[in-house]
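INFO batch 0412 | record 1 of 1 | parsing
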Amino acid sequence: GLGRAMARLLARRGAAVCVNYAVHADAAEAVVAEIATAGGRAIAVAADVADSAAVGAMVARTEAELGPVTILVNNAGVAWQGTLDTYDRELVARMRQVNVDGVLHATRAVMGNMRARLARRGRGSRPPARRCRSAARAPARRAPAGGSRSSSAPR
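INFO prediction complete | emitting tokens
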């Protein structure tokens, strides 16, 4: 799906990639193997993005093994289809925990170190959103020779 495609693209462009999974370890390991076969660096890490402690541990492992997280792809998501007649409070709560809380947990887990790196470069005075350009307009950037970029690509 989208997570696999984004992980492969980021790796082709020089990023070291953390492939997050909650259930499908075999699929995550297959993506890691594809990236490694193509000469990239990647790890697969199990973490439920609805659990902030699990996300924190995933980010800590990613940074220990691959270096600082400089790109975050919030791609985890679950869907529940139903009607008012078949409404299931627990399934809807799980969907919110993954689709909304998961984005918050992952973003909060990486933003402190991202902001600190920006501040060390003298770019910490404005919120990051003001510095971002549209992905469609931004040129692709490659990692410097001998260097790497890390990303966390939750799935």
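INFO post-check: Strands lie at 15-21, 42-46, 69-72, 149-154.
INFO record closed
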